């Protein structure tokens, strides 16, 4: 599988996972978009796997769904998981070592930076 194919498959699976969780909690796309503070079109494109959603928006979507961010990534193929994890592995390990209150600070910083 080429890098582009892995990327496209990751977007498709991530979108399907967002949709699966949204339907499980009984929310419409409009309701989720409003709760997450994003436009409905962005959510629709993400659910179809047609567009990449910035990290800050993914964080807001996971909060609106009341699910940890990592739950959005369950079900990705090993190739997708490995490709996505390469640059972030060290950072994630370090963040997991933080106290919960410090993790909240890091999350807010990431949201701020991702939304710029």
List the defining traits of the structure above.
globular, 434 Repressor (Amino-terminal Domain), 116 residues, 7 helices, single chain, mainly alpha
Walk me through this protein's architecture:
This protein has 116 residues and is mostly helical. The protein has a single domain, classed as lambda repressor-like DNA-binding domains (434 Repressor (Amino-terminal Domain)), CATH 1.10.260.40. Helices cover 70% and strands 0% of the residues. The protein is built from seven helices and no strands. The chain has helices at 3-25, 29-36, 40-48, 55-64, 78-85, 89-96, 100-114. α1 (3-25) packs across α3, α2 packs across α4 (55-64) and α4 (55-64) crosses α7 (100-114). It is globular. The model has no long low-confidence stretch (mean pLDDT 86).
Q: Give the % helix.
A: 55-70%
Number of strands: 0
Low-confidence stretches: none
Output the radius of gyration.
14 Å
The structural domain count equals 1
Shape: globular
Mean pLDDT: 86
CATH-defined superfamily: lambda repressor-like DNA-binding domains
Please indicate the percent range of residues in DSSP E strands (runs of 2 or more).
Answer: under 5%
Describe how the helices and strands are arranged.
Layout: H1 3-25, H2 29-36, H3 40-48, H4 55-64, H5 78-85, H6 89-96, H7 100-114
């Amino acid at each position: 599988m080429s890098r582009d194919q892995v990327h496209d498959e990751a977007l498709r699976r991530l979108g399907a996972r967002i949709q699966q969780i949204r339907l499980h909690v009984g929310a419409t796309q409009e309701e989720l978009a409003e709760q997450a503070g994003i436009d409905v079109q962005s959510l629709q494109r993400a659910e179809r796997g047609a567009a990449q959603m910035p990290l800050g928006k993914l964080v807001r979507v996971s909060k609106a769904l009341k699910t940890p961010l990592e739950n959005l990534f369950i079900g990705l193929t090993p190739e997708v998981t490995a490709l996505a994890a390469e640059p972030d592995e060290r950072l994630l390990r370090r963040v997991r070592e933080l106290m919960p209150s410090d993790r909240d600070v890091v999350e807010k910083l990431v949201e701020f930076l991702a939304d710029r």
